[in-house]
Amino acid sequence: MAMGYPKKWKTYKFKREMPAPLKFGADGKFKILHITDIHDVEPIMDDDEIREIPDNKDKETLNVIESLVAKTNPDLVVFGGDNVSGYWEEFTYDLIQSTIRKITEPIRKRNIPLCVVFGNHDGECGFHTEFQMMQYMEYANCRSNLNDADVYGCGNCCVTIKSSDGEKDAFAIWLMDSNDYEPKENGETGYDHVHEDQIAWYEKRAAELRKANGGEPLPAILFQHIPVQEELKGFREVTADDEYTFERDGKYFYLSNEILEGRVREVPCPPNMEQDYTRQFASWKETGDIFAAFFGHDHVNDFKMNVDGIDLYQTLGAGYFTYGMEHGGRLIVLDENEPRKLYTESIEIPRITDTKF
C-alpha cells in the first residue's frame, strides 16, 4: 500500500469560464458547510457476504451529505479531506471518477460553490490527488484548483468573499493540503504536515491581501485535514502514571475540558509528534489574519478549543465506510459586520437504514 509520494507539481490552470465571485448576502451573512471524512467507495468494491452492508453504508453516507446540504442551504461547501477511501485496492480510475461524482451530486444539482482539501487517505493507493482534483474541477462551480502556486501538495489555494455590495474582498478562506505520511525516527510512518514552502506562499499571499485591505489583515479562516500540533495544548500534559490519560508519540495527556467545547471521543492525531511542526501555527499568529481553523481526520471529535487567541475546531466525520457511530458535519456562519466572529454548529444526521454495521 502506497504511503505517500513526492508531490511537487507546477501550477495548473483549468480552462473554463470562471463563476461569479463569492459574496456576502444582503443580510451580511455567508454560510459554509464543512463535510469531512466522507470516505466513500463504490459498494461493488466491497465483497461482504451480506450485500446490504456495503449498499447501506453507501446510502447512509450519501444521505448525510444530502441531508446536511438540504438542512443548511449553504453558500459554500468545503470537503475536508479523506473524501474517498483511497486505501481500497479495488479502486480504478473509473471508480474514483464515479465516486467523486456521486458524493458531489447533492452540491452540483443545487449549483452550490464547492471547495476541496485532501486528507492522508485520498491518494493512498496511488490515485494521485491531482487526478482527483481535476474530477472536482469538472464541476463549473468548484472554486478549488490544483495549486495557487508552485508549492508542495495539491489544492493549496485562497478563496475570497466579496463584501455584500461587491466592491471589495471582505474575507479570505485558506485551503491547505496537510499531505499524507512521513517517516518517523523509529522507521515507521507518522502523519505529515504543511510544508515550509506552503507556509511561505500563505505569508506572501496574505501580505498581498493585507496591502489591498488598507494595511489591515484580511479576516480569514482556514481548512485542512490533519490538525496542527497545537491542538494538544488543549490537554494537560501528564505522566504515564496518571489516571485518565492518553498517549501520543511517547507523550501523555489528560482529557481536561478546561478550554474545550463539544465532544472528545478519540485521541487527537496531529502530525508526527517526534518533530516540531509548530511553524504553521506561529505563522498564523504573526500574520494576524486567521482567527479560526477547521480540521477533519479525527472522525468522532467535534470539539472547539482556543489556543493563543485562535479557535481550533474538529468536525464530525460524514462517512460510513470507516469507524464512528455518529456522522454529520459543521455549519459555519460568517457575519460581514463582525468579521472576526462566527456562529458554528455541529450537526448529526440520523441513520435511515436498519442494517447493523
Structure description:
The protein has 357 residues and is α/β, with parallel strands linked by helices. 20% of the residues lie in helices and 23% in strands. It is built from five helices and 18 strands. It has helices spanning 52-72, 93-108, 129-137, 196-212, 279-287; strands at residues 22-23, 29-35, 76-79, 114-116, 157-162, 169-175, 181-183, 189-191, 220-223, 236-238, 245-248, 251-254, 260-261, 290-295, 304-307, 310-314, 328-335, 342-348. The strands form four sheets. Strands 1-5-6-9-14-16-15-13 form an eight-stranded mixed beta sheet, covered by helices on one side. Strand 17 (328-335) and strand 18 (342-348) form a beta hairpin. The longest helix is centred in the N-terminal third of the chain and has 21 residues, at 52-72. The model is unreliable at 1-12 (pLDDT under 50).
